[in-house]
What does this fold into?
Amino acid sequence: MGSPANHDNVASLATDFYSLLESFKETPFYHLLFEIFLVLTVLWLILFRKPRRIEKKLTEKEKQELIDEWQPEPLVPPVDANHPALNVRVLDGIVGKTIEIDGKKSLNFATFNFLNFVGNPRITDKAIQAVQKYGVGSCGPRGFYGTIDIHLELEERLAHFFNCEEGIIYSYGFSTVASIIPAYSKRNDILFVDEGVHYAIQKGVEASRSTVKWFRHNDISDLERLLVEQDIHDKKNPKKARTLRRFLIIEGLYMNYGDLCPLPRMVELKYQYKYRIFMDESVSFGTIGQTGRGVTEYYNIDRRKIDLISSSLEYSVGSIGGFAVGSSFVVDHQRLSAQGYCFSASLPPLLAAAAIEALNIMEEEDTTLCDTLMEKSKRLHQKLLDIKGYLIVGEDISPLKHLRLTNSQNTVARLEEIVEFAQTRGITITVARYLNDEHRLPEPSIRLILNVEMTDEELEFLCTVLQEARVKVTV
Amino acid sequence: MNVGIAQGERNPNSSWLNSRGVWLTYIILVFVLHFILLSIPYITTSVAWTLTTTIHNLCNYYLFHVVKGAPWETSDQGRARRFTFWEQIDDGIQWTGTRKFLQIVPVVLFFIASFYTKYDKTHFLINLATMLLAVVPKFPIFFGVRLLDINRY
It folds into this structure.
């Protein structure tokens, strides 16, 4: 048996329990009643409540009512007959120097066909041969069975054309520069970007998540102000500044404005403030410079001073895709870091072959393509200046010009009227369209593109039509 | 959450209380709580029982009727996001075994507590209040009801 203490404990427990039982006999009446009620409820719950779902059942009558009430909505809602989707203009055939719209031929001043390589028989032949040799697609990204010898050849040719160490090609012009910028500039780096850059560059800048400092279009003093501010900021925190990368993103010839960037001064500032220059030469490749090598050739600047030149193959070259050239050290980084290179299928071989042939034509010994283009641009510029009522925006040597109406008459509606009138006379021009989330929406304008094979008479005709349109619109 | 299991339960919250041994564990946990309270020297048995029921009912109310959604990513496309745990049990079917069990436990605890507190009035009131707090929201009339828009979202 346990010790006396234990025995006592057990005994005391027993008395406690006994006292509890005693108190049960003295329960207050309401409490007892309540407890009995609870016991009955519990028993009822356990024994009689069956599981059921919470669902509203509709009676037959209600179902019929709902069926009778239902009215089908029309498949096609009523729509204005002038909706653009109902009045589609149909293009037929090659969009070269002339376009056939809705059966009528007209001169094409709207597409970016600077050197008229679209529809060029040499290029077309080479492309057809490439289809017969390689098939149609390349079936893979560059890193996974998508690299074909023709890609490597094109890259080498581009690097050789620009006299740079290495080139890299992309399969889509828009994503070229939009992949390149985030490949180098990361979250805490600083980008000095011109406000007039085109949409692809804006998207690349946005994707990079870097700190962006926009400076006014082609305004070197504004850029200097930003650089000085950044310099002061850096001096306060030199350790952090050493880990920051700085880039200047500019275009050679601006698509939205038609003017050249002041490159020599920017290169000077580069060595003073230590940033790298990424230049997008989509429009100036093949059009500016003696042999079409772009703004660096025009200003006679050593291409090694520009860290990366990127461009699109979709404008002068007449193929599809884009490329970048620069030193091996810089360009090679993109082979693993550029999203558009690693994760998109590579350029179809027929387009690469077309691009190579276009380069062949551009590099021919006795070619005067670019010279002629610059001359014609200058002449067209003069002719356009002679027309009253238009504001010409752009360099005189630029084959891409923006036309605006003077003073407050410059609206998209009026410009569209001019475009429609020109179409009836056999000239196709277009109003430059922008997306709503552009960083700085340029003013409405007609974007004129000069084709190198336009004759003088055709340019005269263009000016005549523009003059008539102006008169018609303001009346 | 549903990684590595074969049946692909859309929201495990609906069925885990039906699992083997959960009811027994529940009861054992209540008693463990009670023994912990009993081992504190200055608490008498009656106070300990009242405390046990109070704590149990308050936790019951909070966990079943205040907390909404599930602590993991469910594959029911967010259907359970606005439902409290009580409403998620058995996917909303009322009067299942688990629900009846969970409704009866506070009542039984009330009986035991009343017995051990010798039917004292104050204890009765406290126990009654918390028991109602734990039992009343479990009735099907209150399914999906958010009084005064408290805890609606």
